[in-house]
Structures are given as structure tokens and as C-alpha cells.
Amino acid sequence: MKVHAVFNRDGGTFRTMDMEAFAATAKSIFESHGHTFESEIIPGKKLIKALERVCAEPGDHVLMAGGGDGTISAAADFAWKSQIPLAVLPAGTMNLFARALKIPLDLNAALESLATGSIEAVDISTANDESFVHQFSIGFQPQMIQVRNTLEYRSRWGKRLASMRAFAKAMGRPPKFLVRMVVDGTTIERTVSAISVANNAYGHGVLPVPEVVNRGELGVYIAGKLTPAALLKLAFTVLTGSWRSNPDVDEVVARKVELHFPHLRRGAKATIDGELIPLPRDVKIAVRAGELKVLAPKLP
């Protein structure tokens, strides 16, 4: 197997590492298992061009992407469109897709796990023309991320602290908006504070991570009109993993979801895998069952 790795040196753990030494370790681990391995260490601003170039290389090869969830999401999009297997190296803050694939979070253990893994077919989802491997979200999460982006942080723990500060600032005015939803053909109209659509339904752990990534389903999570007190309660149930018992949250499993916002405000945002994007008035979301190939520990 030939592996071409792209390491985002501005992503999470990599910021404080000796990247040349790490790249040498990665090469040694993969070659010890009979693979061909090459890597490049690039700044975040050059990530997209590097991913595009690697995916355009002729011949059979695997794209390895090392960085945070934004890096992995971008790499998954290129890999999916190019029909090239993706190897996920978790070097970010949350590493949600890596967790879903059961990849160890220790980087050396992750390399060993990938070097002895196999190519599997998993799901990827799309919101209009944008793909995602974790979730599409509107309402409170984009609002909180917009606040967080105004704060300074230089490390993973700094980012987590900034997220807590952003939550505290945004909690005073939870968003409320009207949405018309068509979920597998059934129309629902509600005023809500947040909607998240996940690439496979979340499991029962504390983190919002699916237990299975090849079920061919979307998990749809709807939070009704929230007061600041209700939002604080929701945050507590999320942190303790008991959010399914929260009466303000509805969960639906679907294959297709259409969203329409009759009163969309100018500058409204959504997030795809944690990255802010402009929110269109109409969004069509679908799961692409088994369309993403990944190098991962053998799936159950």
C-alpha cells in the first residue's frame, strides 16, 4: 500500500511537536509493515492545495490527513470526490471522526493502528454541495463559534477554554428561528433554537459520536425554543451524556432532510464539521451510504 500523508502543522497537537521527527516515525512504522510512505508538512493556509494535489496523483494510493476536525473534513471531501481511501490521523481538539472510526487518539498508536488496518466503506453526508463526516448544525452552535472566533487561544486547552467563555457569552440570548423541515417526506414546521444533522446517529457516550459509521442514516437533533435556563440545562445533560432524557430535544433517524427558513436573516451562519459557512435559505441533506473509503481498524 502506498500512503501519501499531509500533516497540517497548524492543527492542534502538531503546533507543539517536532514535526520532522514525527514524520520520520510515521514512515518507519508504515514501512515496517511493508507499505510505502511519504509525507509533507504544510501550514494551514496551504492545506487545500496540498490535498487537491495529492488526490490528483496517478495510481492507487491512500491520502493520510493529520490535523483537527476541519482538516479531516476537508480531506474527506477530496478523498470522496476522487474515490481515494482516506486515513485519519487525529491531531486536533475533539477528533470526532477519528473517534467514530475507533482510531486511537495517541498519535503513535494511531499510526500503528492504521498501518495494520484495512480499507472500509463508510458513510459521508452532504448539505447541498457541501460534504460532512460529522454534522451540519444551525442555531446555537454557529452562534457560539462566532463568539469563540473573536477570542484568542493558542492550544487545544486554550480552545476549550475559549469555547466555554463563548458559551457563557452566547447563553444570554439563545437563537430562535422558524424552520420548515421535510424529514423522509414528512413535513414539520417549528420554531427552534438549534438543529443538528449528524452523519449517522450518535451513540450513547458523552461525546456526540456515532457508534456505527456505515448504517446509511442521518441523526436529526432538534432543540425547541430555549430560554437561557433551558439552554444551561441542555448543556449539563450533554456534558453528562443524559441529553436523550431532556424534553427539549427530539431525535429522529432519517435518510433525507430538507430545511427551509422563511425568515432567514442576513449574515446567518451554519456549521459543517465545526466550520462556519453561510446558511442558505434552503438546504437539502442526504446520507451517501458507503461512498467514503477509509483506512481504519476493522469495523464491527
Automatic annotation (TrEMBL):
GO terms for cellular component: cytosol. GO terms for biological process: methylglyoxal biosynthetic process. Pfam families: DAGK_cat, YegS_C. Transmembrane segments: none annotated. PROSITE patterns: DAGK. GO terms for molecular function: kinase activity; methylglyoxal synthase activity. This is Diacylglycerol kinase family lipid kinase. It comes from Phyllobacterium pellucidum.
